[in-house]
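> agent: user asked for a holo structure of the chain below bound to NAP. Plan: (1) validate sequence alphabet, (2) canonicalize SMILES, (3) run complex prediction with ligand conditioning, (4) return tokens. Step 1... ok. Step 2... ok. Step 3 dispatched.
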Amino acid sequence: MQNQVWRLARKPPGGWPQAEDYLWSEEAVPEPAAGQMLTRTLYLSLDPYQWGRRRSGSEQPGDICHGRTVSQVTHSRLPGYAEGDFVFNTNGWQSCGLSGDGIDVFGYMLPRKIEPTLAPISTAIGVMGMLGLTAYAGLILQCQPSRGDTLVVSAASGGVGQVVAQLGRLYGCRVVGIAGSAAKLDYLRSLGVDAVVSHRSEFFVEELRAACPDGCDIYFENVGGGVFDAVLPLLNRGARISLCGLISQYGNVDGEDSRSQWRMQGEAIFQRQGVLVHDLFVGNFVADYQERFLQEMGAYVREGEVCYLEDKRAGLEQAPEVFAQMLQGDNFGKTLIAVSDDPTLTD
Ligand SMILES: NC(=O)c1ccc[n+]([C@@H]2O[C@H](COP(=O)([O-])OP(=O)(O)OC[C@H]3O[C@@H](n4cnc5c(N)ncnc54)[C@H](OP(=O)(O)O)[C@@H]3O)[C@@H](O)[C@H]2O)c1
């Protein structure tokens, strides 16, 4: 058996990903040394931030492309982990990888065991992982929703957005979801979202205004660009914003810092309305809130209070193409690659 690997071929020259940015190789499977384990990748998470790392040079040509993974231990020399255990780790875009002593850990993404009886294991890179925590931290911890608040969520059917929308509903908000297609809007309605608007509509600005007759108390920002333009005039006095991401700007080639530009664009309205803007970085919430989050979200998921749609594609070889599609909105739910068979689904 060979290890299948996607490496970064070059510093991406363009604004959006191209096939030539990646290099596929088949390599020898690494042997775990003492204090290490070898895991087989079952699921690979494709996330917008991975593109930022490649463009900024944090990921260098020749590096294995970074990515969060759900894996299964195939050979362990690491105390506490046995063959067959399921783990969250960061194997990246490869079919197997080492974890443990001497293997780089990506900041706050610490390997941990996953208990398959609590939730489907793939959710450890979704609703029960960093994506869910991002939604929880931005909405609950930063924006502190109150019953009756109008919450506007952009990219509302995506990995983060769908969790924000449902948490908002559970916390008593009137939820307005923005998404890009009729199917996505239908999905949001099925989640109990109160009003839905397509940012692709010719009348988007008017439709969003009509969907927010009492203005906007909380804006969960995933997108920026034209969507932010339309939300700005709706912000109520004392509104709160979690600035989670600006995906519409991730292909910009002007060299400007899109978060600073976003702040400059909103500054006059933020001042006039006393809007509180929270920069969101999920890594800041792992140490203090991950346990509390896993308990609260675990209960919601088990009781069916929070549902979760995955856009699961089979085969590691598809990763570059699916990744580029996700950045353009051609995903429906949380995007992940099924790299190898999930034994919890076939037992
Ligand atoms: N701050 C943090 O720590 C943190 C952590 C995780 C994620 N994030 C951010 O959260 C956001 C969502 O990430 P995700 O992983 O959940 O991705 P996602 O929402 O599953 O996928 C991206 C979605 O963005 C929407 N989109 C793309 N281009 C757009 C445009 N020009 N205008 C409007 N919508 C556009 C598309 O939905 P439509 O078809 O509906 O347009 C697409 O499905 C991203 O901005 C990401 O960077 C931040």
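> agent: step 4 complete. Summary for user: The longest strand covers residues 36-45. The pocket of NAP is lined by residues 47-49, 131, 134, 155, 157-161, 179-181, 184, 199, 222-223, 225, 227, 244-245, 247-248, 280-282, 326, 329, 331, 334-335 (CB under 6 Å).
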